[in-house]
């Protein structure tokens, strides 16, 4: 799909498939086009070109939308003076869903105790739970959540994460967006990464991290000097870890493999006590792949992206393009 807002291409020839049974993360910096994509999937925004299909059909052609797909895009749209239960009952009644299901979803999201309180007084975490209850009302096979953990406390984040994983384990299709790779790495199995509306990566979380993060190797040896010169002679970059631990002298070798280093050591008759590959941080991996996109936004006219993914985009200013 492509979505053009005036001169702005919010979603640019984006194509992907979301599979059932796992949580799929939809990752990208703020302004990357995640919400626009989800709105188009749900028929709330009209794509400039392309289509989104849910179980083979565009949203507007679904025979029973609420029983096919549930979504939580903006948790705060509930009527502030309605109770949680009344809000869900109204949704259920207008969709031919039994009242018993209302109590069931309230229990599922842990809101039974506060079901009679006005939703307007709910905390963000409670509003998110109510939004989830609404999404689950029709017991749909497909679920979409747009940045559901934004603004939640750590306990709420863990709860939502586990909840989404449980829904996926039940065989449902779960698509959840976030601008935080660290959160997605803990929640999702599959990862669709976008930047500036375009697809950057579509793979498992592990593949994405492996590909994006710089691989280095940690090697420990009682013959550290001999090892260092053998590695340097082989053209490798050797870093000394800052550790003062003289009992376990260790080197870190940039952009190499355990195989290569093991063989160099063997050729030089060097004893190794430890040989392990290590990866850079998840956020480094994310920045490496989307960094250009972040800079673009920092230099542009969008206000909605300020303050995300570190301040480095701001400092680059408009001079980049
Ligand atoms: N209704 C709209 N009119 C004009 N521009 C929009 C509109 N909705 C989103 N955009 C722009 O499209 C881009 C993608 O926005 P969005 O889908 O909200 O990104 P994300 O959810 O990844 O943060 C942003 O640059 C945003 O400013
Ligand atoms: Mg968004």
TrEMBL record:
<dbReference type="InterPro" id="IPR017871">
    <property type="entry name" value="ABC_transporter-like_CS"/>
</dbReference>
<feature type="region of interest" description="Disordered">
    <location>
        <begin position="298"/>
        <end position="321"/>
    </location>
</feature>
<dbReference type="InterPro" id="IPR003593">
    <property type="entry name" value="AAA+_ATPase"/>
</dbReference>
<protein>
    <submittedName>
        <fullName>ABC-2 type transport system ATP-binding protein</fullName>
    </submittedName>
</protein>
<feature type="domain" description="ABC transporter">
    <location>
        <begin position="1"/>
        <end position="221"/>
    </location>
</feature>
<dbReference type="Pfam" id="PF00005">
    <property type="entry name" value="ABC_tran"/>
</dbReference>
<dbReference type="GO" id="GO:0005524">
    <property type="term" value="F:ATP binding"/>
</dbReference>
<keyword id="KW-0547">Nucleotide-binding</keyword>
<dbReference type="InterPro" id="IPR003439">
    <property type="entry name" value="ABC_transporter-like_ATP-bd"/>
</dbReference>
<comment type="similarity">
    <text>Belongs to the ABC transporter superfamily.</text>
</comment>
<keyword id="KW-0813">Transport</keyword>
<dbReference type="InterPro" id="IPR027417">
    <property type="entry name" value="P-loop_NTPase"/>
</dbReference>
<keyword id="KW-0067">ATP-binding</keyword>
């Amino acid at each position: 799909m492509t979505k053009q807002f005036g001169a702005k291409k919010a979603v640019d020839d984006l194509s992907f498939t979301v599979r059932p049974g796992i949580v799929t993360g939809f990752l990208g910096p703020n302004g990357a086009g995640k919400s626009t994509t989800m709105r188009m999937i749900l028929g709330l925004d009209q794509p400039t070109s392309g289509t989104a299909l849910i179980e083979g059909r565009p949203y507007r052609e679904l025979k029973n939308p609420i029983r096919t797909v549930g979504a939580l895009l903006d948790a705060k749209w509930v009527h502030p003076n309605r109770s949680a239960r009344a809000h869900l009952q109204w949704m259920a009644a207008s969709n031919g869903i039994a009242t018993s299901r209302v109590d069931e979803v309230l229990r599922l999201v842990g809101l039974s105790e506060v079901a009679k309180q006005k939703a307007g007084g709910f905390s963000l975490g409670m509003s998110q739970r109510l939004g989830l209850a609404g999404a689950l009302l029709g017991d749909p096979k497909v679920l979409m959540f747009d940045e559901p953990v934004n603004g939640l406390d750590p306990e709420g984040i863990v709860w939502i994460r586990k909840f989404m994983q449980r829904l996926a384990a039940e065989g449902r299709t779960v698509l959840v967006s976030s601008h935080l790779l660290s959160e997605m790495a803990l929640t999702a199995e599959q990862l669709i990464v976008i930047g500036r509306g375009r697809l950057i990566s579509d793979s498992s979380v592990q593949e994405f991290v492996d590909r994006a993060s710089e691989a280095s190797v940690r090697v420990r040896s009682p013959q550290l000097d001999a090892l260092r010169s053998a590695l340097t002679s082989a053209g490798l970059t050797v870093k000394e870890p800052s550790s003062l631990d003289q009992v376990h002298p260790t080197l870190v070798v940039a952009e190499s493999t355990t195989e290569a280093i093991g063989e160099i050591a063997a050729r030089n008759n060097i004893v190794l006590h430890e040989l392990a590959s290590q990866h850079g941080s998840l956020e480094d991996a994310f920045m490496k792949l989307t960094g250009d996109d972040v800079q673009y936004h920092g230099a542009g006219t969008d206000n909605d992206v300020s303050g995300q993914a570190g301040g480095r985009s701001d400092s680059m200013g408009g001079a980049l393009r």
